[in-house]
């Protein structure tokens, strides 16, 4: 109650906006509490009421008022081909807006696999040269927290913000730049179907008897053994379920390059 709300600029490059869709569904804490009581979301072009020049002016106001003290949240990535013309915000290439906002930020949060790794827009042959935040040439040398996933789990997103506000420091990151508290274990390590894997009980094809019995999905392409994310512990929709619980193999959506690493339904 006594702490000032930390200013956040939330930019959007090439993306599908489902990272925002995930964020607004956080149950613990509620997204409304994050936005109304914890952060000052000064700019977010997909959910803000302002539009046009009025909206763009807010970026400059925030930069001048809170130089070096705001968090830059990035959803989506920057296409570099054709001088950035594949993503134009307020009449300018997104990459320029990104570099400018990064220059004055305290730290950067790369939401989702688009901002962290490139994701489907960067799939071969990557015609727009979609480039994740940390690989944008000329991006300021600021701490970058990657929160990958397509999208990331809502409670993981809000927990990262809550951690920064509560402890007034950035969370510990692994060598790929992801918060250790959510990305240090594989889906496979805590998967409730793991006893079936260990017992050699596998789904051989979708809708076979093994599928109906809830056997392990490894043979129909599950990437859980090589995917670092919190889905099998935190789960989705307020802890209700996750892809494997719904009967679908993990496609490794939080891993770098998952979109180009062969068929989602092939074995590893
Ligand atoms: Fe959408 Fe996935 Fe990119 Fe998030 S990471 S904006 S969910 S494509
Ligand atoms: Fe591992 Fe996937 Fe099988 Fe779960 S379903 S035990 S994550 S291979
Ligand atoms: Fe993505 Fe696999 Fe979780 S597909 S949502 S990392 S179970």
Task: List strands and helices in order, with pairings.
Layout: E1 6-12, H1 18-23, H2 31-38, E2 39-44, H3 52-65, E3 71-75, E4 78-79, H4 81-84, E5 88-89, E6 92-93, H5 94-103, E7 107-111, H6 112-117, E8 130-131, E9 144-147, H7 154-167, H8 180-183, H9 194-198, H10 209-213
The protein binds iron/sulfur cluster (2 copies) and FE3-S4 cluster.
Structure in words:
- There is one protein chain.
- Helix content is 28%, strand content 13%.
- The protein is an alpha/beta fold and 268 residues long.
- The longest helix has 14 residues, at 52-65.
- The structure holds iron/sulfur cluster (2 copies) and FE3-S4 cluster.
- FE3-S4 cluster binds at residues 149, 187, 227, 229, 231, 242-244, 250-254.
- This is hydrogenase (acceptor).
- [4Fe-4S] cluster 2 binds at residues 188, 191, 216, 222.
Short synopsis of the structure:
Its main location: membrane. The protein has 268 residues and is an alpha/beta fold.
List the ligand species: iron/sulfur cluster, FE3-S4 cluster
Number of strands: 9
Helical proportion? 25-40%
The overall average pLDDT, rounded, is 95
End-to-end gap: 49 Å
Biggest pleated sheet: 5 strands, parallel
- Contiguous uncertain segments of 5+ residues: none
Label the structural class: alpha/beta
Element-by-element helix/strand order: EHHEHEEHEEHEHEEHHHH
Beta fraction of the residues? 5-15%
Kindly report the spatial arrangement of strands forming the biggest sheet. 2-1-3-7-9
Specify the overall morphology: globular
Alpha-carbon Rg, integer: 19 Å
Total DSSP helices: 10
Binding site for [3Fe-4S] cluster: 231, 250, 253
Family: Belongs to the [NiFe]/[NiFeSe] hydrogenase small subunit family.
Enzyme class: oxidoreductase
EC number: 1.12.99.6
């Amino acid at each position: 109650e006594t702490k000032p709300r930390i200013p956040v600029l939330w930019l959007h490059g090439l993306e599908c906006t489902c990272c925002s869709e995930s964020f607004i569904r956080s149950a613990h804490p509620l997204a409304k509490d994050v936005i109304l009581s914890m952060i000052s979301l000064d700019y977010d072009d997909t959910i803000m009421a302002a539009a046009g020049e009025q909206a763009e002016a807010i970026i400059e106001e925030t930069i001048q008022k809170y130089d070096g003290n705001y968090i830059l949240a990035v959803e989506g990535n920057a296409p570099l081909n054709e001088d950035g013309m594949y993503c134009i915000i307020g009449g300018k290439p997104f990459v320029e807006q990104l570099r400018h906002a990064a220059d004055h930020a305290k730290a950067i949060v790369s939401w989702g696999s688009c901002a962290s790794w490139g994701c489907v827009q960067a799939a071969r042959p990557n015609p727009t040269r979609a480039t994740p935040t940390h690989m944008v040439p000329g991006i300021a040398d600021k701490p970058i927290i990657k929160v990958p996933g397509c999208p990331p789990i809502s409670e993981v997103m809000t927990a990262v913000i809550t951690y920064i506000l509560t402890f007034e420091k950035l969370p510990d990151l692994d060598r790929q730049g992801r918060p250790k508290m959510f990305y240090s274990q594989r889906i496979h390590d805590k998967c409730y179907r793991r006893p079936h894997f260990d017992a050699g009980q596998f789904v051989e094809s979708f809708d076979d008897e093994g599928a109906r019995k809830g056997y392990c999905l490894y043979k129909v392409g599950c990437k859980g053994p090589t995917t670092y994310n919190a889905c099998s512990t935190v789960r989705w929709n307020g802890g209700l379920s996750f892809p494997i619980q719904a009967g679908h193999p993990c496609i490794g959506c939080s891993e770098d390059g998952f979109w180009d690493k062969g068929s989602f339904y092939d074995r590893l």
